[in-house]
């Protein structure tokens, strides 16, 4: 009798284990969900006179929006080429070396941002560092958390992520004589859930409450409201 009960117990455990595996297999694994989607770029023209009095012109990024999902790290972007965001970058680096101007990614390279003019804006080293610590790092940490959350919760059918929107301010920075450098960038996130079967996404502010780290949650809450980062690296919250 005891042997029969033990056998039935083992059969039941095997059945439950199989059922768990079946449930996990009924939804797409995370690596079959796109890393990002619906990315859009808008550029803005600029014009200035160089040291020789010649008129120079080009474009820089004005606005970038993208839907970022947990596996965005699997499809990284690129570093800027020499011809990208020119001639403005070379001009600023030569005339204003004290600010250490760089070709700043609006959409971070590590999570898919291309090193192309449409995604680049002239940023001081202070502004770029502030963008990284106050926006890019919290965003990436939250995406990593939702990656883990999806993997360890087989009952969850949706992937969680963010719509990420970055735009430059209309006003120009007075640290540069020429009116060509934006005074600040504005960064905002919109929490979303992605449905693999329908391939649609929708807003879901409640997913932020799943983040267990109070510091990270507070950072994401701030980004939900939007922040401004100026060329001195100072952050202004709305």
Map the helices and strands:
Layout: H1 2-25, E1 36-49, E2 55-68, H2 88-95, E3 102-105, E4 120-123, H3 125-152, E5 159-168, E6 184-195, E7 200-203, H4 214-225, E8 227-230, E9 235-237
Antiparallel strand pairs: 1-2, 2-5, 3-4, 5-6, 6-7, 6-8, 8-9
Helix pairs in contact: 3-4
Rg, alpha carbons: 23 Å
Judging from the principal axes of the Cα atoms, what is the shape? elongated
Structural class: alpha+beta
**How many individual β-strands?**
9
Low-confidence stretches: 1-25
| Biggest sheet descriptor | 7 strands, antiparallel
Average per-residue pLDDT, rounded, comes to 90
**N- to C-terminal distance:** 71 Å
User: What's the tally of helices?
Assistant: 4
Order of helices and strands: HEEHEEHEEEHEE
Query: Which percent range describes the beta-strand content?
Result: 25-35%
Portion of residues in helices?
A: 25-40%
Number of structurally distinct domains? 1
Describe the structure.
With about 240 residues, the protein is an alpha+beta fold. The protein has one domain (about 25-235). About 30% of the residues lie in helices and about 30% in strands. Strands 1, 2, 5, 6, 7, 8 and 9 form a 7-stranded antiparallel beta sheet that branches. A two-stranded antiparallel ribbon has the order 3-4. Strand 6 (about 185-195) and strand 7 form a beta hairpin. The radius of gyration is 23 Å and the shape is elongated.
